[in-house]
Hints:
The chain is an alpha/beta fold. The protein has helices at about 20-25, 80-90, 110-125, 135-145, 160-175, 185-200, 205-215, 250-255, 285-295, 315-325, 390-405; strands spanning about 5-10, 30-35, 45-50, 50-55, 70, 75, 100-105, 105-110, 200-205, 220-225, 260-270, 270-275, 310, 310-315, 330, 340-350, 355, 365-375, 410-415, 420-425.
Amino acid sequence: MNTAKVDVLLGLQWGDEGKGKVVDVLTPCYDVVARFQGGPNAGHTLEFEGQKYVLRSIPSGIFQGGKTNIIGNGVVLAPDLFMDEAKGLEKSGHKLTERLHISKKAHLIMPTHRLLDKALEIAKGKNKVGTTGKGIGPTYTDKISRNGLRVGDILDDFEAKYAAHKERHMKMLASLDFNDFEGFVEVEKKWMEGVEYMRTYHLVDSEHEINCLLKEGKSVLCEGAQGTMLDVDFGSYPFVTSSNTICAGACSGLGIGPNKIGKVYGIMKAYCTRVGAGPFPTELFDETGQRMRDIGHEYGAVTGRERRCGWIDLVALKYSIMVNGVTELIMMKSDVLDTFPTIKACVAYKQNGKQIDYFPYSIDRDIEPVYAELPGWNTDMTKFTSEEQFPKEFSDYIAFLEKELETPIRIISIGPDREQTIVRK
């Protein structure tokens, strides 16, 4: 019997590539949508029928009736934030309890994890990573050090387990001289309400469920959070997230074998952005960067933080395509560049006076981008409905990118709405 394949959708840059919208566009083709890593530090923004939704922990397939949505074991989940998000979606008419399944092996973000996140950032001083403060790092730290509290724990002697974990965290906070507990009691109370709310969902052994669905011939789309360049192993370490954001993370974050992976969709912006601290070779500090930020509304969906903007980095993208095994590219926010007279693309780096065309061990200093320049298209593309309408300069830009990246660009987004999406022939 031929088992169905799992297709994987992930970001190739530093996050914020527009994964939420693309998942929403692709989900009609799939029976199941699954999240495999990350937590509520990443927001996927979807816009349709005049409404805007930001999904933090819930898979983006939730808006498609009749689909099974799975939060996998590789995800870290905050019960209070999950409850807020789910209830907000239910208000808009989407019934979640039937169509959303949560892995018992997913780890819980405790209120004390957020305090530890804050305390550890303060302790790092000028070397701080610039986390969202949502407790993601400390939760994954507990997971790796075999001290974690998991979703399945809420079904058995939970209060005692919670108290023991909290006591251990309080000792750690004391050792860091941390004493800012303002509002903690209220947060903890709401967190416990979130735990009770989670009990109303299907809490499952997601590895068994997803493999059974594949055996039944169901099509599965795996959705990553954040971007490849934030991967804990292959990103710009230490300015990374705490999980594997690459394609291999779908195997470990859902319990599927690598031979089950089918297509790998890699999402990129037509330019590049980054939130928080860390190296960014093509970052622009001038009026051009500010224009990209303003036109693209480059502010974090979860934090509201201003995103750093720059030209597309093909050295980093080639690296991302390689480590993920990307089979098809999806280019977002092409319309943001509609009014730029010249478009630049980084094709190599200069490091210590030497030109290199590969992504090196460290990009935190002495990296100078080498640019190719292409003419802009100076055309408003937001109303286009087919690739035949593209101006020659934009078609040339696509051809240039495909040649450099040696991967076809299948889908192009020309605006935030679901309708502003062109699938190329």
